[in-house]
Amino acid sequence: MALWGARFSEQADKRLQAFNASISIDQKMVNQDIKGSIAHVTMLADQGIIETSDKEAIISNLKDIQKEIADGSLPIDPDAEDIHMFIEAELTKRTPSGKKVHTARSRNDQVATDFKLYSLDTCAEIKKYIVAMIQTLLHQAKANTHTIMPGYTHLQRAQPITFAHHLMAYVEMLKRDLSRLDDAMQRANTCPLGAGALATTTYPIDRYETAELLGFSGPTLNSIDSVSDRDFAIEMTNTFAMIMMHLSRFCEEIILWCSWEFQFIELSDAFATGSSIMPQKKNPDVAELVRGKTGRVYGDLNTLLAMMKNLPLAYNKDLQEDKEAFMDAAQTVEDCLVTMIPMVDTWTVHPQKMKEAAQKGFINATDCADYLTKKGMAFRDAYGCIGQLVKYCISTHQDLESLSMDEYHKISPLFDDDVYEAVALKTCVKNRNVVGGPSPEMVEKHISLVEKELEAY
Ligand code: ARG
């Protein structure tokens, strides 16, 4: 008979048991469940609700159970309903005091508490990987502040930038993800334990003590909301989805960059794969998988949102579906970061290829127009002149660097010998010395700024 079977006269059908169970998923919350129970009984004893001897028996047996599950000597019963029932049943087998652990508690506040603790631990873990990814990008950026490449809009060569500047764009995205996680974690930091099934309890519990023992900033303030709120999981999964979106954009570029068409980078052999038929192939499977798994995390977020949208207050069993989606999203983010970090760390950059690409496509045309503007022409007129000049270059197979002064003068008498210096890619990059810009000086400043910010993590 199940722990809740006292009012039933028939055994639960095997099919119901299998369908109803969540042990295969929530067994990941062993540590959080035990931590929650230890805090709960400590508070119960302090409040005189249970004997100190009961508290001690419960805590020492819970610690044994935790150790034995960790070392594998206590296998988790796959037929148990969930991790909370399994641990309570195991505890009760070991000590009669076990029957008192659930005093003034419901599985509803227990599961909300365990899940919050678990999700907070998970975010802390993911933050470490994001910091490591940022550090890897900073390292790559430092080595490439002078590596000129074309910056793109519409995937058409647009203006000259550096590889460092491009990588630092991803650093900014990941920094926002870090702060999103911090923000979600801060809002999740209230303790549902003591909310009971939905309406607290008649025992004189001290919810402030329980919250403090568990590291929360305080108790939740409405018992109904406490057991039915999953905003925290949705906010965190939303951030996971955004992290994946950022990683996926990055991976899309990595895939392009290591194609023969670009050849901007080459992945190390350890982080590339081959083909079963084409002996020449070296494929960026990791980057493609990250891109593919992004859809999966979006799906997890959608699962959570859809699960919540018409639940009446308070607890409904639908909520049991929350952990699988959250855990899958978190695990996916972690797996992607774990593999991407060394992939980026070990790639080879080809500055020469980037430069060659930068030299084609007239990406210094804006600079050439700015040159005329600085000599006194209105920008829109200058824009028109350079448009004509580019057209001329295309028809005569030349570029702005190779035109003769006579050819320049056919367009405008304002051109002088210093135009060659003005349209040199190095100059174009160096002169974009505005905050947030690609000049080596600005990017170096940006890198050291981020290094300082990371010290807080
Ligand atoms: N395994 C359940 C969950 O994850 C535990 C809560 C069950 N509560 C209930 N009132 N039936 O949500």
Q: Please, how many domains?
A: 3
CATH topology of the largest domain: Fumarase C, Chain A, domain 2
| Largest beta-sheet characterization | 2 strands, antiparallel
Number of helices: 19
Assembly of the depicted chains: single chain
CATH class of the largest domain: Mainly Alpha
Q: What is the residue-mean pLDDT, rounded to a whole number?
A: 97
Large-scale geometry: elongated
Helix content: 55-70%
Task: Determine the strand fraction and express it as a percent band.
Answer: under 5%
Widest sheet: strand ordering: 1-2
Question: What is the terminal-to-terminal distance?
Answer: 49 Å
CATH architecture verdict of the largest domain:
Up-down Bundle
Report the uncertain regions.
none
Organism: Absicoccus porci
Catalytic activity: 2-(N(omega)-L-arginino)succinate = fumarate + L-arginine
EC number: 4.3.2.1
Enzyme class: lyase
What labels describe this entry?
about 60% helix; lyase; Fumarase C, Chain B, domain 1; L-Aspartase-like; two-stranded parallel sheet; 19 helices; binds arginine; Argininosuccinate lyase; about 450 residues; mainly alpha
